[in-house]
Description:
8 helices; single chain; globular
Amino acid sequence: MSRNEANVDLGLAALLALVFSLPGLDGASAAPDWGSAATHLRNVAVLAPQALLFMLIIDIRLGGSAPETKPRFARELPGTLLLAGLLVGAGLAVSLVLPPAGTGPLADAGAAGPAGPAHPGILLPLIALSALSVGWREEALFRALLPGLLERGGASKTAALGAPLALFAASHLWQGASGAVSALVLGGILCLARARGAPLRRLALAHAAYDSLAMAALAYGA
């Protein structure tokens, strides 16, 4: 690969980080109302297209994502459940050390609105779709696309995983210290899994499982 191509990869990585991550650094952002159906519909509408865009760029720029994303759920289920369990355990541990004010036991900040959460029959399916959108979007960006572009640009594997991890944690600063620390710990687990060869689909589904539990707990005041 030529030096110019490497510069293109580094420039694309910087652009993606700037456009899709830095808005989350705004500490004045209001906490989402996870009990509102509209919040989850907005998540799906905004984040699902972003996830598809990232997968397209991975296909075009990094040489293909299809082998990683082809559904093999029976084969992936044990590893996905184990990884999801590690995330939940780590999230609970962080919440005990740095309990976020006014939230449930999982350290993924937010708060139910004063009107109370929507009916579970409506809200829980939307939470699942919302969590899938978040999981695929964040794992595609922070654990596959940015690291891949940085490695192609000349970064070491450690730097290529570590820099997006730091950005991932920083982009959760709007949740306060607990949110940033939680993102750093949980993202670190996902980075280690990725470094050990875990496919993107496993990371995304485990992330979605964690977020589903967190959003439901926050919505219903657990």
